[in-house]
Design brief:
This protein has 11 helices and 13 strands. The protein is α/β, with parallel strands linked by helices. Helix 1 links the parallel strand 1 and strand 2. The structure holds UDP-4-deoxy-4-formamido-beta-L-arabinopyranose (WQD).
Length: about 350
């Protein structure tokens, strides 16, 4: 059984990838520093798959701890999620973001080289494109000057990996996520935003649950059909399955270059107001919202051209937006009932 390290494996996307890896007969070991999640996610993964992954609470900024871990674990691949990811916070604390998102990546790659581990999957983001000149966005779209230190760490991360693949000979795939939403159908795992949610969907579900008074829609003066910004919202389970497809591509040595990158989205754009309307339709809940000013740094529209991933990874998003929003609501209801 191939053994895969998943860093940040107790996080929102990481935990869904762990479930899909276990469903595909991989042995999984998780490193997480628990800074943005809680350890009960481990038991919740086990509730879904009946397999409790090995777990090590390690801060990947501590080089010696990373070295010790790799001394004691033979691995066939690494999927790296562990990183700080709040765009706004990265503007206030850039050095925290560079330390956590870059140093940790360097230490991981150094240990992979030392221990001859060949396969690396990197959690990247469509943020690297900024406001693309053409829609839908293909992988040929130019990487633009990052709008935030968070986005910059994703760009720098990809460059570090590309240089390392060339120099040390390992193979890597960067998956450029669009907007991951929703939760596992079991409602055992989902998005656990600590504090006031920055992202749209958790704010929507918390408003519907009465935790937030109303949703602020950041701007309705964009050059779009209804004036609100457009994104490509992809069910987190579809996104998780893309990681398994990418890993299998590397394990079977089907990759055409030692560093590849793929846009992972649905290929469909949805506006904020369309999200509100669709959420109300699938849940029967009325959403209180008000239109406020644009959020600084937001782009008008982003949605993926997924042709390359469809063909090369033999992967396609299967879930509907309705199913994703309903799963987010069911997950929220479970969290609210717990409180
Ligand atoms: C989506 C849309 C907002 C909240 C960011 C990162 C990206 C990834 C996902 C980490 C936008 C609007 C939002 C609210 C709103 N992060 N909105 N009211 O900004 O597209 O992407 O999060 O991996 O890298 O850049 O996602 O969910 O914050 O916003 O109107 O309370 O919803 O303006 O148009 P975003 P988001």
């Amino acid at each position: 059984m191939k053994k895969i390290l998943v860093t940040g494996g107790l996080g929102f996307i990481g935990s869904h990838v762990v479930v899909e890896l276990q469903n595909s007969e991989f042995e999984v070991v998780i490193i997480d520093d628990l800074s943005n999640t809680n350890v009960e996610v481990l038991d919740n993964i086990e509730k879904i798959t009946n397999i409790k992954p090995q777990f090590f609470q390690i801060d990947l900024r501590k080089k010696e701890l990373v070295q010790d871990f790799f001394k004691n674990n033979q691995l066939d691949g690494v999927i790296h999620f562990a990183a700080s990811k709040a765009v706004g916070e990265s503007v206030e604390k850039p050095l925290d973001y560079y330390e956590n998102n870059i140093n940790a990546l360097v230490y991981l790659l150094q240990e992979m080289d030392k221990n001859n581990i060949d396969n690396f999957i990197f959690s990247s983001s469509c943020t690297v494109y900024g406001q693309a000149d053409e829609l839908p966005i293909t992988e040929n779209a130019p990487v633009k000057i990052a709008e935030s230190p968070y986005g910059n760490t994703k760009q720098i991360g990809e460059e570090i990996i590309q240089d390392s693949c060339k120099a040390y000979g390992f193979n890597a795939i960067a998956l450029r996520y669009f907007n991951p939403i929703g939760a596992h159908e079991s409602t055992n795992i989902g998005e656990l935003p600590l504090g006031v949610p920055q992202n749209l969907i958790p704010f929507v579900t918390q408003t519907a649950a009465g935790i937030r008074k109303e949703l602020s829609v950041f701007g309705d003066d964009y050059p779009t059909l209804d004036g609100t910004a457009i994104r490509d919202y992809i069910h987190v389970v579809d996104l998780a399955k893309a990681h398994v497809s990418a890993l299998q591509r590397l394990l079977k040595k089907e990759n055409k270059d030692n560093f590849e990158f793929f846009n992972i989205g649905t290929g469909k754009g949805t506006s904020v107001l369309e999200i509100v309307q669709t959420f109300e339709k699938v849940t029967g809940k009325k959403l209180n919202y008000k239109i406020v000013d644009r959020r600084p740094g937001d782009i008008t529209a982003a949605y993926a051209d997924t042709t390359k991933a469809n063909i090369e990874l033999n992967w396609k998003a299967e879930e509907t937006l309705e199913a994703a929003l309903l799963s987010a609501w069911k997950w929220q209801q479970k969290q609210t009932n717990k409180e």
